[in-house]
């Protein structure tokens, strides 16, 4: 049995576009559920999505619990051994309150990669396969969220390249979700059910492409 | 380290083209070498055969895909588990020009990344009286590059195959050797494309090894049937080159002499891709002479290295090489003789493979 940890924000949690964190797609609709179905019986997919999660920031308004860095370590230890850690974060770092350029968000992502490598929660205490996923760019119209995310739309288009440079530099797997899906126009930065499905299917392909030697 | 900015070297530039070509890392070369030798292998196989980690392979393959050098194939359903995605070189990812300077004429080819000939022409050598025809050389090379549908930055370089065999040089126009020496730098200056120079027989051996009949072979005697018969020993894919290697007068020049003695027309001999007429007993006698020489070489070689395969390459029609190979096999027990599969001009195709091996492969 191989284990995949999907570590993300509201788009891993499965928040319905235009809804609140309590409005959530069903287990089978959310991309980790789709991933589980695609990968099949030999795999265990763990869903760890929190609405509002950042890469490395304590959120002054929503609270320190939104810091992706502090929760990642206990989270990985809870679920170890892990064969693959997929991290899809970054959108919340673009909130106006953090004032971060895309390159800094990528630095935050790099920090998480270092933490994963340092903890080495893979089988036998090895470094697991790490996959960085760049979230799809936000739509221009993000409704009532436009002041919270002031200036974020433009930055969100530059996240993918910054993430890829970081992934290459630290030699980890990378996937640009924006290459296959878009954010739902309902609120401009969450994913529709169809987008979850497409993302889950693509992630399964990416994870399989890593190549796994069957050691029983 | 940890809080330093990321190293943007690999992904440096997103524009298409082969601009970062000069800084190809050893690991990238390792992956490209594997792909040049094996079509359609998965990332897992690349990892297993190179010893690189899955994440390193992932990064390298992605950057090669972005550069257009590598492309994904259709997912293959394995016996167990989810489908694997095979990777191959993108034929349109890189092109190369090959020039072979013969004693009678010059061949110019343009090949794609998987060795398919996209352009071929034969131009005459300049004669003693005409002086230099460098202008025509350069124009032909330019025409080869212009035969490409689009971007010229996809040209990996120009390979130049130069004869060094003193008998063949004596046949070439006066001062040919001196002109050959400067030709490389002239092409480089004129076109701004890197030029790689190699001995013509070694180039042909390299071509058969990379794109031809010798692809799956590691150890063999490579023979080139041109004006004369030439040998190169290939051990563990390495071609041994030396000016001291002897050539034998049992090649097409010899055949030409015999045919002329018998009053037969010899014009087909030097044409590229031409079918030969039936030369009757002259041809049969020549086969015997040729096979005897090959047998002698193989016998001599077998005293030193256990090589049992011979590859016979030529621009002559393939069935000629096949007939000679067949006869050699009949005569020698335990010897496998294979006709080369690069037709038209193995030397020029081999020359064109030089920029690929220099830029993309590990030694």
Automatic annotation (TrEMBL), chain A:
Keywords: Hydrolase. The keyword Ubl conjugation does not apply. One of its GO terms (molecular function) is hydrolase activity, acting on ester bonds. Gene3D superfamilies: SGNH hydrolase. Pfam families: Lipase_GDSL_2. InterPro entries: SGNH_hydro, SGNH_hydro_sf. Residues 6-197 form the SGNH hydrolase-type esterase domain. This is SGNH/GDSL hydrolase family protein.
From TrEMBL, chain B:
Belongs to the ROK (NagC/XylR) family. It comes from the Bacteria. This is ROK family transcriptional regulator. Pfam families: HTH_24, ROK. CDD domains: ASKHA_ATPase_ROK, HTH_CRP.
